[in-house]
Amino acid sequence: EVQLVESGGGVVQPGGSLRLSCAASGFSFDDYAMHWVRQAPGKGLEWVSLISRDGGSTYHADFVKGRFSITRDNSKDSLYLHMGSLRAEDTALYYCVKDIDIWGDSFHVWGQGTLVTVSS
Amino acid sequence: AIQLTQSPSSLSASVGDRVTITCRASQGISSALAWYQQTPGKAPKLLINDASSLESGVPSRFSGSGSGTDFTLTISSLQPEDFATYYCQQFNGYPLTFGGGTKVEIK
Questions:
Q1: What confidence score (pLDDT) does residue A18 get?
Q2: Which among A81, A98, A101, B33 has the fewest CB atoms less than 10 Å away?
Q3: Confidence bin at A104 (pLDDT 50/70/90)
Q4: What DSSP line would sit under chain B, residue for residue?
Q5: What does the pLDDT look like over A38-83, one tens digit per residue?
Q6: What is the C-alpha end-to-end distance of chain B, expressed in Å?
Q7: What is the mean pLDDT of residues B42-65?
Q8: How far apart are CA A45 and CA A113, in angstroms?
Q9: Closest CA to A95 of B78, B65, B89, B26
Q10: B40 touches chain A (CB under 8 A)
Q11: What is the pLDDT of residue A105?
């Protein structure tokens, strides 16, 4: 069974940093691009970042460019989101998502999310 | 960025009703569109990829159509478990974007 388990969320002050992790299992992790997608409380879905299978290519939404970075460790079947200069509007549930293909850009399998709250 | 406009933003329907949700893209995206279902407290679930390709395990009462700028998700006979919020998402270009969602409620 494909599983994605996020961790690392919590309460952080504005301007602070946080690293989210995602542990993958049940599939060949290094065969798929991976994404982070977020959802603010009571709001819709927002794509955040994408990383290629080998980690060599990344894309980010404009609202996180220069503040967040996405990395992966294929030896550990793990995905990461390094978040910096956090703002109140970054408060959201952050989902780790497996791409449908090597690089298909639709979201096949979702974790249950980890909640990030940015507040003083 | 490609904007996706879903309509309606919410609707009320009864079990057995036929429901249609539309998604309009701000520019042509070929068939690079997916539909997701999200029930309260749960992660989204992929229903349809490439505008009309039903994902494995998704009931056949769900169907998708369209290409270019106009797309539809149809539920042929609404079931109790279908009351949820539905999102479209384009993957024609970056940034990847979602529609605002359509909440399907019980009448």
A1: 98
A2: A101
A3: confident
A4: ---EEEE-SEEEE-TT--EEEEEEESS--TT-EEEEEE-TTS--EEEEETTTEEPTT--TTEEEEEETTEEEEEESS--GGG-SEEEEEE-SSSSPEE---EEEEE-
A5: 999 999 999 999 999 999 999 999 999 899 999 999 999 999 999 9
A6: 36
A7: 98
A8: 12
A9: B89
A10: no
A11: 86
Token pair listed for A26: 């049940």
User: Can you say whether residue A10 is alpha, beta or left, with left for phi > 0 and alpha for psi between -120 and 50 degrees?
Assistant: left
Question: Nearest CB to B43: which of A35, A62, A110?
Answer: A110
Closest residue in B to A43 (Cα) is: B100
Helix (H, G, I), strand (E, B) or coil at A13: coil
pLDDT category, B28, cuts 50, 70, 90? very high
Do B91 and A108 count as a contact with CB atoms less than 8 A apart?
no
- What is the mean pLDDT of the segment spanning A21-41? 97
The whole-angstrom separation of Cα A46 and Cα A40 is: 9
**Taking CB atoms and an 8 Å limit, are B98 and A46 in contact across chains?**
yes
Burial class of B41 by CB neighbour count within 10 A (0 to 12, 13 to 18, 19+): exposed
Residue pointed to by tokens 């996180």: A64
**What is the band of B75 on the pLDDT scale with cuts at 50, 70, 90?**
very high
Pairing verdict, β A68-73 and A58-60 = unpaired
